[in-house]
Amino acid sequence: MRASRFLIATQKETPADAVIISHKLMLRAGLIRKMAAGLYNWLPLGLRVLRKVEAIVRQEMDRAGAQEMLMPVVQPAELWQESGRWEQYGGELLRIKDRHTNDFCLGPTHEEVITDLIRVEVKSYKQLPANFYQIQTKFRDETRPRFGVMRSREFIMKDAYSFHLSQESLQQSYDDMYKAYSAIFDRFGLDYRAVAADNGSIGGTASHEFHVLADSGEDDIAFSSGGEFVANIELAEAISVGERAAATEAFTEVATPGARTVDDVAKLFEVENSQVLKTLIVKGVNPETEEETLVALVLRGDHELNDVKAEKLDIVSEPLTFASDEEVKAAVGASPGSIGPKGLSMPVIVDRAAALSADFLCGANKNGYHFSGANWERDIELGRVEDLRNVVAGDPSPAGDGVLDIKRGIEVGHIFQLGDKYSKAMNATVLDENGKQATMIMGCYGLGVTRVVAAAIEQNHDDNGIIWPDALAPFNVAIVPINMHKSEAVAQQCEQFYQDFTDAGLEPLFMDEAKARLGVMLADVELMGLPHVIIVGDRGLESGVVEYKNRRTGEKQEIAKDQVLAHLQSLIAN
Amino acid sequence: MRASRFLIATQKETPADAVIISHKLMLRAGLIRKMAAGLYNWLPLGLRVLRKVEAIVRQEMDRAGAQEMLMPVVQPAELWQESGRWEQYGGELLRIKDRHTNDFCLGPTHEEVITDLIRVEVKSYKQLPANFYQIQTKFRDETRPRFGVMRSREFIMKDAYSFHLSQESLQQSYDDMYKAYSAIFDRFGLDYRAVAADNGSIGGTASHEFHVLADSGEDDIAFSSGGEFVANIELAEAISVGERAAATEAFTEVATPGARTVDDVAKLFEVENSQVLKTLIVKGVNPETEEETLVALVLRGDHELNDVKAEKLDIVSEPLTFASDEEVKAAVGASPGSIGPKGLSMPVIVDRAAALSADFLCGANKNGYHFSGANWERDIELGRVEDLRNVVAGDPSPAGDGVLDIKRGIEVGHIFQLGDKYSKAMNATVLDENGKQATMIMGCYGLGVTRVVAAAIEQNHDDNGIIWPDALAPFNVAIVPINMHKSEAVAQQCEQFYQDFTDAGLEPLFMDEAKARLGVMLADVELMGLPHVIIVGDRGLESGVVEYKNRRTGEKQEIAKDQVLAHLQSLIAN
User: Where is the Aminoacyl-transfer RNA synthetases class-II family profile domain positioned along the sequence (chains A, B) (predicted)?
Assistant: First the structure.
């Protein structure tokens, strides 16, 4: 492409409403433009990246045997009523009416549509398993769209849905999709992790998220130093090793006026936060009597409650709900800042790590008082012990291979064993081998195509702009002339490179605006993130060389002009 | 592709609500499935065709220097209010509210969005001309969606928009798009015509429709036998040759009780309809006094009024509106069935052909009476004569090259010089060469991607199903084995063909369901329209041949098995 025939829409200023780096750089490099809240135009440069993402996704899905199709953006309410989601789905489902006042929605996802289609088209077990995908525009009416295309309202997803009669078959397709996703992210050239994820009703191994690692990620991912273990922090088991130390201090009630938080108490007693136990009161239901009850959860002051783990306990209500101050006062007789595990008239569940504490501090269930020198069993009964907390860096790996580290990730893919959630509600059956109607089970496999673009930038940028991996670059090489309007030799050599690179299947961007300043062109090329830059000037040509600059490493080198193509091919092929 | 891994969703029954052949065959061949009124799922087979259309469109648009981008489906009301179309556009514009009750619409077209974008991104005449396109989902909330994807609510269009500072530049891009569209339809392998179309305010040459010819088309297109002239019948000038014959009959008022239509009168007097003149009363405004008036339009009984031509007359209101029976009675003193041009107290405009009539019949402006033997000038004043009628087959070509024929066409593309309609309303200006703000002018260029698929089928089918042109075929060759489950030789040869064809870049569909019956497979392959069929059986293999069948011609021939690939390549290359 010649720059003179292409909309290069770089800008120096960073728009005020852009917070994260990918959003800033996508605006500054001219990949996208905001049309309205959460709605973006993809400019020609951005679309080229998007199409690269789509092409890789399509190739690997096809290779894995999935069949591409295309379902509508606008979906009838009837299907969503049948699955039950018309009522369940929140305000992100944009419900609309057509001119005849019939109800429709803009599809945030297509489980209902594909299930409706397949229950008609697939009649026999002989047609299973089958896996269908599309690359299609979705809409989620986010309350507060933000971060550019990272959390926009209209976006493009690849969504796939597989159909099966047995768990074994579902597991096989799931494993195939796991491999296909790994191949896709490998080809993108991104640092990513497949992370065991919580999917509520089915269990950990039936769902994996694919995260691109980046400091700005919204999710915390725990890794073992041995490489065996990867999980979203929501799901990572906290292993506590060692035994409880023996009690050494006397159990004492101490007046602690004004000390209401862990920090306050630790400061007052001049101890680490880990020495203070915190007691959180949440709502629950006694699983035997089915009566509502409050439940006390006890953790070390330096640990965070893991909501997902708490919700999995039989006695804790889902979603996790904290008791109000008034409810706590009514049940305990003290305010939340002075609560502790001793003598509570409600079930008490102690985190594994907290259960190993000795000589600890905790609330005395009396406003303005705490206990010091408290010890389990000696002073306070230790009942049920569970894993309640988020893991932290340095925790032992649950797989036994060293210790955990925690990095942030951006979720860009999610594979999921749905089971019969939709097929049962929508009566999607086929004839099985015995000629009987059997309900299919399903998997679904999402990949955020537009989100990948932003995530790739979050992971690959520097102060000068984007640094594209070769596979995603809108153009993989820039040809930058020095004073082309004054030198016929420079112009001719650039034209020759442009022709040769194009013929060789590279995708050059020729900065052919005759009078553009070198510094401006190089800044643009760096901002746009083109991986390889060839700078052509009279001085070099006199000795038969041009300058090559690598965007990622910053490395510069002189290369004989007839070696340039081979050099680029060796770099881009690898 | 192996049929065993592909959703072949052919069906024998024609769904009840399908009226036109393309809709029937798209359902029967398994290209699409209806999800709701005007909303279709594209099954894997159909999507393959759609992608071929898209790829050809994309290549030719790129070649013509247009830049691809992508704009949102959901558009904010503000932009449509700025252009004035929020109020003007009918119910086909689906207006919706988001969760914050802000107004949006689903885009039926993107003039507002692109103009909003370009007025910010393009600052200088140096960046012009520029032409941007997208291939994107559109929505038009048709009152009565019908004919499958031919008139659906959600559909895919390629829409392009060009920006200029001069009419010469716009004309250049328009001509480039005309050529690009011609290249696109040539590559599709469809019989089409670029037709001068009426676009209201700008004039005939500033708009062309691209029609795929098919008997089921909604538009009538007039062609000259010499090939010089092509126009939508709305725009084709009616040439009347010869002179008016001399009067031979006496002018007589005749009682014609009950004769109210041209047919009635012609039958009563035993003459052709052409001998009866009809007088239509429409609303108008006197261009000098600006007072409302009725206007009488006089045509031969065998000719049809051309609304577009009538609307172009200075005295006739647009849109064309007929006077009510009451208004006619009040103005003339007779009912519409007895109206004629004699002695009317309103402007009378006579069609060119009607002005050549002699000894004609017409209403006497007296209920139940007609004049016979009427002649212009002698009996009735002949005032203004204009071209008011649709051309008919046999009319002289306006280009002077023989006579006109009329065929039906399906409009699948439309190129259009917009002028400053949007740029002026939305204040889209750039700095011109003199450093002054100048309003851009625009062109727009639409192509109905989903519609092309249906139109191709309307033009290419027979009783057995679709007949794809090679360029649009979902698979260009079918490999059909005879009794593969009983013959290792057949299985091996088919596998070999499948491998060889794939390696050679052909797109084979291997009907590899071991026990499928030959007749069923051949019927499916014909219904799906695959252009080339290779049938492999033991008997042929014994003498080293297979059968080739051409879908379009029905021709069958035996071909040596090692000549098959070369044979296919020679056919598909041409």
Answer: 38-469
How does pLDDT run across B295-306, given as a tens digit for each residue? 999 999 999 999
pLDDT of residue A473: 98
Q: Range(s) for CATH 3.40.50.800 in chain B?
A: 475-573
ipTM of the complex: 0.86
> Cβ contact (<8 Å) for A99 and B94?
yes
Residues of B in contact with A512 (CB under 8 A): none
Report how far apart, in Å, the C-alpha atoms of A413 and of each of A155, A191, A446 are: 14, 14, 5
Mutate to test the interface with A, among B6, B7, B32, B102 (most CBs of A within 10 A): B7
Subunit contact A7:B130, Cβ cutoff 8 A: yes
The answer to whether the Cβ–Cβ distance between B70 and A36 falls below 8 Å is: no
Neighbours of A437 (CB within 10 A): 9
Is B33's CB within 8 Å of A121's CB?
A: yes
Q: Is B59 on the interface with A (CB under 8 A)?
A: no
Three-class SS state of A78: helix
Q: Which of A274, A451, A260 is nearest to A353 (CA)?
A: A274
**B 7-26 residues with CB below 8 A of A?**
7, 9
Structure tokens at A388: 């309640």
Q: Is B475 on the interface with A (CB under 8 A)?
A: no
Long-range contacts of A340-346 (CB under 8 A, 24+ apart): A340/A277, A340/A279, A340/A364, A340/A365, A340/A370, A340/A371, A340/A374, A340/A380, A341/A277, A341/A279, A341/A296, A341/A298, A341/A380, A342/A371, A342/A374, A342/A379, A342/A380, A344/A296, A346/A281, A346/A293, A346/A294, A346/A295, A346/A296
Q: Quick one: CA dihedral B420, B423, B427, B432, positive or negative?
A: negative
Smallest CA–CA distance, residue B67 to chain A, in Å, is 6
DSSP annotation of A389? B
Q: Please name which of B539, B524, B535 lies closest in space to residue B494, comparing C-alpha atoms.
A: B535
For A329-362, the pLDDT digits (tens) are 999 999 989 999 999 999 999 999 999 999 999 9
Statement: residue A204 has pLDDT above 80: no
How far apart are alpha carbons A171 and B15 in whole angstroms? 37
Say if the Cβ atoms of B41 and A120 lie within 8 Å. no
User: Out of 3.40.50.2000, 3.30.470.20, 3.90.960.10, 3.30.70.990, which CATH number does the structure's domain A252-386 have?
Assistant: 3.90.960.10
Q: Say if domain A475-573 classifies as CATH 3.30.420.40.
A: no
Cα(B514)–Cα(B483) distance, rounded to whole angstroms?
7
Which one of A44, A91, A117 has the shortest CB-CB distance to B41?
A: A117
Amino acid at B526: E
Average pLDDT of chain A to the nearest whole number: 94
Q: Looking at chain A, which residue has its C-alpha nearest residue B129?
A: A5
Q: Which residues pair with A193 in a beta bridge?
A: A211
- Structure tokens of B333? 């003193």
Q: 3-state DSSP call for residue B441?
A: strand
Q: Looking at the complex, report in whole angstroms how far the Cα of residue A43 sits from the nearest Cα belonging to chain B.
A: 5
Sheet harboring A556-560: ordered strands across? A508-510, A477-481, A532-536, A545-550, A556-560
pLDDT 10s digits, A501-550: 999 999 999 999 878 899 999 999 999 999 999 999 999 999 999 999 99
Distance from CA of A9 to the nearest CA of B (A): 7
Per DSSP, the three-state class of A46 is helix
Residues 6+ apart with CB under 8 A from A401: A224, A225, A226, A227, A228, A229
Pair A296, A345: CB distance under 8 Å: no
- Could you tell me if B222 and B229 are in contact, meaning their C-beta atoms sit under 8 angstroms apart? yes
Find chain B residues with C-beta within 8 A of A38's C-beta. none
Tell me whether residues B139 and A74 touch, CB distance under 8 A.
yes
- The fold of A48-214+406-457 is BirA Bifunctional Protein; domain 2 (3.30.930)
